[in-house]
Amino acid sequence: MRNSEDILTDPPPPAADARLAYGPEPLQFGDLRAPAGEGPFPLAIVIHGGYWKANYNLIHTGHLCWALTEDGVATWNVEYRSLGDPGGGWPGTGEDIARAVEFIPKLPVDHTRIVLVGHSAGGQLALWAAKKARLPVVALAPVSDVQESASATGRIARRRSSCLQSTSPTARRSSCSRSASGRSSSTAPMTTAFPTP
Prior knowledge:
By secondary structure, the protein is of the alpha/beta class. Helices cover 35% and strands 15% of the residues. It is globular.
């Protein structure tokens, strides 16, 4: 299995047709790709994941956008301010996604056929934006419970630390096996929790 951080070193996708700013901040832009031929074409608004962290960006969903465009769907691959960027984190990240969606009427696409697509943290943002904009959504492996995800991340980090500090081989195996999966027998069921638009 491939480590998710490997995408940071993947070659970039083919260049987009246009990079358009949807706001005044440096990271408020999107890459527009349009299929060959005569439009207007349906549009997928694509939102990248990366646990809302600044070291991930729209390049990582560029290959998906390129493939969709090859199949006749225009794509608006959205960049946004993330944790580690000035203004990133909540509410700045949400404001950027809302602003990118509000920019859609300026794009040369079929405005009656629009879908939001997001992966991982981008899936959470797509679900949030879909609720606000009343658009259909495809959320690929979304972080659908932000509070549980944040607290699980803390639990996993604590388990990994105890795993490394355990002196008994039996305790180390038990602690490390839970750390590797990120789960323990007391993991609570997932619930949906989104910020209110």
